[in-house]
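quick one before i forget lol
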Amino acid sequence: MMPVIGITCSRVVGGAWGLYSRGHYMDYTFSEYSEAIAACGGAPILIPVAQESQTLSRILSRLDGLLLSGGPDINPRFYGENPLEGLGEVDDGLDRMELEIARMAYERDMPIFAVCRGIQTLNVALGGTLYQDIPSQVGGAINHSPKVDKAVLTHPVQIEKNTLLCKILGTGSVWVNGKHHQAVKQGAPELRAIARAPDGIIEAVEASSKRFVLGVQWHPEGTWKVDPPSKKLFRAFVQAAKRTLPEK
């Protein structure tokens, strides 16, 4: 049986793309997520933003794994801070939905794979904080948001030994495609920082007390077709979700 993987959507105001009048939203996510999940043996399903606790609980009851996808900045009010210069676009409705579904999935010990904004969502959902804007808050930081295609590997990360990520990739160092200006600052108590960029920015987290909870700050969905480490991440996630299926 194929494990069913839920992928969270972001959204844009329809009028921004000339589709509808202002005030109408369009849920979306990039097709690379679904393509990677399908290629690795999973059945992807998109989760729209407009949800309540009851519907999220029902959705999770039908899923075998949750992928927290990329998207806009997270409103700092959700981790107890005031907005700083450099904060980008935020969407409270999206934040509320993803923070709640992340907590629910974590409490159910559902396999979670969190990508870019997803690692930030996971961290905030479990009690952590974020750098609202790396360039203005971290002295000596490398360029984490280069103006290159998402398929381009931009910088290396160092991975701690004896971690889930190191086991999956089989190496302690890997080049990644980072495109972000926010990042984990104070890690959530239940998450362990397991990889960092050359400037010390956290690039991956895991929860060793759970079956599979892994967050990466880069975009493996943009490189999985040509970069073996990227595909290994999706394959490991789908396999973890498959292990949650009831045996026949």
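fyi The chain has seven helices and 13 strands.
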